[in-house]
Amino acid sequence: MKRFVSACLASAIALAAGSALAADKEIAVVVKTVNSTFWQNVQKGAATAQKEADGYTMTFQGPAAESAIADQVNMVENAVNRKVAGIVLAPSDPDALVPVLKKAWEAKIPVVLIDSPVSDAGKQYYQAMLSTDNVKAGELCAKALIDKVGTSGKIAVMSYVAGAGSEIGRVGGFTKYIKDHSKLEIVGPFYSQSQMATALNQTTDVLAANPDLKGIFGANEPTAIGMGRALAQSGKAGHIAAVGFDGNQDLQGFVKDGTLEAIAVQGSYQMGYLGVQTAVKLTKREKVEKALDTGVVLVTKANLATPEAQNVLY
User: Fold this and answer.
1) Which residues fall in a coiled-coil region (predicted)?
2) Domains of the chain: which residue ranges?
3) Can you tell me the distance from the alpha carbon of 68 to that of 72, in angstroms, rounded to the nearest whole number?
4) 313 to each of 69, 85, 197, 230, how far by Cα in Å?
5) What is the pLDDT of residue 24?
6) pTM for the whole thing?
7) Mean pLDDT score, 24-29
8) What does pLDDT average to over the chain?
């Protein structure tokens, strides 16, 4: 009996040691949702970086929806409790994630943010931030729309999650540029919660309520897809100038057939790749840049096939 208990105890210790060793080399990647090809492309980049990092493992998680902020907080908290080597996080909310980032900081776990920032209260708790300059990206989309519709008339803004860091910059940059460079009236923004079906229904309603609409902006992947489908279903594709954001196959198709004038495409693969690569460097106490712009490319039918566009489309 004593031998049996000793054997079981030895096995438990070995399993615990193995688990600790695994966590000690684990990079936990937590994104806004796993139900989006944008974040799936981030995962591809992260997986490539993990394979290049000798001896490191990676976990990849995200809530079912971007609006499930409490679920994301729990995922990060679980990673801290596992004592992972590093965390790569795309925060869904600039304030809600700060307390758990503080826990990671107190546990001496390096954190790399991707895509979206946290509020100033959390700045000391992460070591690097990799993202699109969303203000500039929003301005780029606004300029593209003004170039098509002119400086007077009415446009609509179809946004995603109110208060998300990327949304504040992107839609804020878009709106300010429109106000500073035109007399266009803005309808909205409307918030889809990053749900394609919600965006489709919202856009359908906006089109029906505003027959004089000249242009429309869809501020992220699921929202832009829903917007494009609403334009197509209403027979207004090609008659209302539309600019989307992100670059999956659906959105590329809308650019090809003229439903969308342009899409602003982020370096999603680069976010994942550089995020994990930076986290690994931090675990080795190597110096990294505090902020890195991962870039954006405005893709139109004219440049869709160019290497610059193909490098970011997914």
Assistant:
1) none
2) 26-131+268-294, 134-266
3) 7
4) 28, 31, 23, 22
5) 83
6) 0.86
7) 95
8) 93
